[in-house]
Amino acid sequence: MSNKFCVSITECKKDGDMATVGFVVANAALGSEKETMVFLSADGVWSAVKGEYEKVNEGEPFAPLKELVDKFVAGGGKILVCAPCLKKRGLDGTNLIEGATPAGGAALVEFLDGGTPCISY
Fold first, then answer.
1. Mean pLDDT, range 33-42, rounded to an integer
2. Is the dihedral of CA 1, 111, 120, 62 positive or negative?
3. What is the pLDDT of residues 45-78, one digit of tens each?
4. What band does 1 get if pLDDT is binned at 50, 70 and 90?
5. Are 10 and 121 in contact (CB under 8 A)?
6. What domain count does the chain have?
7. Phi/psi of residue 33, each to 5°?
8. How many CB atoms within 10 Å of residue 24?
9. What's this model's pTM, rounded to 2 decimal places?
């Protein structure tokens, strides 16, 4: 069984529920002592942009996205943000939250190499 886990998130502004649930699962994986990486692409990149991730709050029973993301980063989770997806949205990566790193698809493939499970939201 793999000691790694990946959560891919493609929605945030358009569907905050997807980003919220994705980070709930990512935190659960960390709690299960898995080396966990979240890969943000398409609209999901907003989950790691200062001034944007604070706006997502889907309400009970979920914590606001900011709390979930901050908990994930504080727990040692890794966030990779699709660099071309940032560029498409006029972002250059300098406005990402602490703990988030721009990356290309090759970084995702490398993390998944060897059969790492990945779930998508």
1. 98
2. positive
3. 999 999 999 999 999 999 999 999 999 999 999 9
4. low
5. yes
6. 1
7. 60, 35
8. 18
9. 0.95
Nearest to 42 by CA among 12, 17, 5, 7: 12
Residue 35 amino acid letter: E
Nearest to 86 by CA among 26, 44, 36, 37: 44
- CA 30 from chain centre, in angstroms, equals 13
Q: CATH no. for residue 106?
A: 3.40.1260.10
58 neighbors 67 (Cβ within 8 angstroms): no
Could you give the CA distance from residue 57 to residue 36 in angstroms, rounded to a whole number?
Answer: 23
Write out the residue range of the structural domain in which residue 84 sits: 4-120
Is the pLDDT reported for residue 103 higher than 80?
Answer: yes
CA distance linking residue 77 with residue 51, whole number of Å: 21
Which residue in this structure is represented by tokens 């190499």?
A: 113
Residues 48/69, Cβ–Cβ less than 8 Å: yes
